[in-house]
Amino acid sequence: MTKTSKPSGSAGSTGGGQPPLAAMVGPLAEYVTDATQRTILFLDVLRRRSEDYYEQKAQEVPHVLSFEPELVLDGRTLERPVNYLLVSVKPPEGVVIDPRKRPFVIVDPRAGHGPGIGGFKADSEIGVASRAGHACYFVGFTPEPEPGQTIEDVMRAEEVFLEKIIDLHPEAEGKPCVIGNCQAGWAVMMLAAVRPDLFGPIIVPGSPMSYWAGKRGQNPMRYTGGLLGGSWLTALMSDLGRGKFDGGYLVDNFENLNPANTYWAKNYNLWSKVDTEAERFLGFERWWGGHVNLNAEEIQWIVDQLFIGNRLATAELTTSDGVRIDLRNISSPILCFASEGDNITPPQQAIGWILDCYEKDDDILANEQTIVYAIHESVGHLGIFVSGSVAKKEHQEFASNIDLIDILPPGLYEAVLVHKSAMETGADLAAGDWVVRFEQRTLDDVREIVQPSPEDERRFATVKRVSDINLGLYRTLLQPFVRALANDGTAQWLQKIQPAELPLELFSDKNPLMSQVASYADRVRERRVQSSPDNPFVKLQEMMSSFMVSALDGWRDTRDQTLEQIFLAVYGNPILQALVGLQAGDEAPRRRPGIEPEELEYIRQRMAEIKARIAEGGTTEAVMRALVYIGMGGRALDERRFAVIQQIHDEERSDMTLDEFKHSLREQYFALRLDPEAALGAIPKMLPRGQKERKKALDIIRRVATSSGELEGEKAKRWAEVEAMFTPAQKPAAGRGGSKARARKKTRARTQ
């Protein structure tokens, strides 16, 4: 007797011979068990997040540094107390700090979060700077501001911190490199404009400096001030908080930019991968959820003067003692690091200040400023500081080449990173996997990125005036009543129901509904069942998640477009502009900072001094001038040339310091810019007479100039000119003509 079976393609069957419903029972049961267990583990992670938050909150100085800090100065003990602290960072095991290298100072943003993001993990700003041999310092803060502290007080505290660091490193060749992350960037730039003598190179990653700039349809955050009617709401929330502004409100602003991530994707990613994602989620939330407070005076100044007023780049701010804060006074190189994927500080806001300060390219040179910008293609705002790939690439290259950045001639540059695999020559001269090249740019290049709009300028100027009016009305009509009604109890209640704070309360052990979650989670871990990757319900889950993300993204886009159109219509209304005092016409509502007569006189004297010294110097100056001349034949300088210069410096055992080298290099650069004919003509007179010494100098020039490849085009032409200058003229050959010439000289000598 033979066994028969239905054909595999018969209706009412599956490939395994089971009815369809029966075939789904097993995967469904597996998925339901897995999903239920994941939900319990997910709730436990949220509970642990709340516990981490309250544990952090109980600490005097909570932070998320992954490095061991040691207190150097406490800002609370200064004459003008602030809640800022200066700590030294112990280098990782096996890392040796070179005392001759300039220290790095990382200043974290106080933008609603606690400190530590600059040293959040090994691959961070602190991590790469330490591995490059630099001593590292970190400027953080406590959760509560000191009574009455102002932004200027914070600036003065950082001034004291830098003075202390300089005193601690007398052997260092160069002043400290200061990194101001995000909101710390503008504070660092303000201090550098007032005390330029304290700074080496300045790096400002993701730092807003030009607050009205941005692209339509991409940067909705810049409209917030106008849509809220100005800064009166900031004053109201500070009054309700009894003179303090809850940093959680700033976090809410960031969260609202991406509702798909805030309300779904972030939590879904944790829930779907709870077995592997928990620790990474908790590590980040320790910083993201560690809210800090600001004084009412601080946040009001920030909103009025910067976010709405946009007064930093136009030199409209002054200190309490009358010193004007002019970014053109910064004498250190400035490196602005931004990203196209950053919707909080887009590239337009990071580099737009350059156009606010300068009208012509020559103005940058006249002020002897070196400005570098680097723009990432896609990383988001937080990725600029916390992304491991960014740390291993951009931050590592910046740290490794900080001395090269420091000696760049004045001008505007873009930092371009090229992988070593693309290098044909001298790849071994560069540290790491990348070679950084500094390409000369013009203000037109910046304009192409920023795309300034006079119409938008008038709109934001209108916002500023409307804000002043509304703030005045609030302070006159409502503020006395609000302050009379507010008390410590209402302030605490508002903090608890604040959107960034409320989830931490709900998912903590304070909630009776969460009391058994920890024990349930322990039992789940003992009996964990995970769905197979090919489970059809897992695939359906992913499809549903993608749909939710798309729906929320669509809602965000519609919201942003609607709000943008409202902003443009309201504040572009010429009647409203006239009512708030903006004059009709083509005149820009904000002017670039003018050049004071004293500044013009300084520039004139400086140029005159350089011209007078064009013919001064010896072989070293001649070599530098020749190298600068050849380099001016192109538009780029990369790290390989500087590496060769360092090698030659060590081989020759030169005692020239980095500051001396920088000063001399700038002198030669300006000499060639001011009077190229005289500067080149003086080179042969600066050289030694001996052919051997000239040949040695020429070999150095050739070695440096060809370190990044053979010379071509204009550079090759200039090399030929330099080679002729360094080659002594041949003496007349001994012979008939030479004998007659000598005889004539002797005859003239006897007759005289």
Q: Please, could you describe this protein's structure?
A:
Strand 3, helix 2 and strand 4 form a beta-alpha-beta unit. The longest helix is centred in the N-terminal third of the chain and has 39 residues. The protein starts with 19 loop residues before the first helix and ends with a helix. It folds into three domains: 225 residues, no CATH class; 261 residues, 3-Layer(aba) Sandwich (Rossmann fold); 130 residues, no CATH class. With 752 residues, it is α/β, with parallel strands linked by helices. Helix 8 crosses helix 9, helix 25 packs parallel to helix 30 and helix 26 runs antiparallel to helix 30.
Share in helix: 40-55%
Total helices: the number is: 32
Q: What are the low-pLDDT stretches, counting only 5+ consecutive residues below 50?
A: 1-16, 732-752
Distance between the termini: 143 Å
Set out the fold topology:
Blueprint: H1 20-58, E1 69-74, E2 84-89, E3 104-107, H2 125-131, E4 136-141, H3 151-168, E5 177-180, H4 183-194, E6 202-205, H5 224-227, H6 232-240, E7 244-246, H7 248-257, H8 259-272, H9 274-288, E8 293-295, H10 296-308, E9 334-339, H11 347-351, H12 353-357, H13 361-366, E10 370-376, H14 383-386, H15 388-400, H16 402-407, E11 411-419, E12 434-440, H17 443-450, H18 454-485, H19 488-496, H20 502-506, H21 517-526, H22 536-571, H23 574-579, H24 597-612, H25 619-631, E13 636-638, H26 639-651, H27 658-674, H28 676-681, H29 683-686, H30 691-705, H31 713-726, H32 736-751
Parallel strand pairs: 3-4, 3-5, 5-6, 6-9, 9-10, 10-11
Antiparallel strand pairs: 1-2, 2-4, 7-8, 11-12, 12-13
Helix pairs in contact: 1-9, 1-21, 2-15, 3-4, 6-10, 6-18, 8-9, 8-22, 25-27, 25-30, 25-31, 26-30, 30-31
